[in-house]
Amino acid sequence: MFTRKDISLIEYELDNQFHQHVVTGGAVNLARIYVYDLDLTLVAQSSTTAALPETSTVVCPSLRETARRREGVARLQTIADLCTVNNQPYYSVIVSIGGL
Prior knowledge:
Elements lengths: L6 H10 L4 H4 L9 E3 L5 E4 L15 H9 L9 E7 L2 E7 L6
């Protein structure tokens, strides 16, 4: 899917995550899911939800920049940060999938 660059299929799968029990049951208030390439360039994203105002940029862009500066094995480590969008707090997490 990702290697074929089928962005519409990736976005479809991302949107499906909003129908998982942890989200529909209220355990997680999921705002948006992003997919980045190895250079941390945005490739795809889930549809906007009511939990997140329309924005032309990613939530917590400083987290992505911090992740982008990491090198070697550190790039594989999960990184997280708390930021605000329109005075609303958001917890953002970047999880590496795959290897270097």
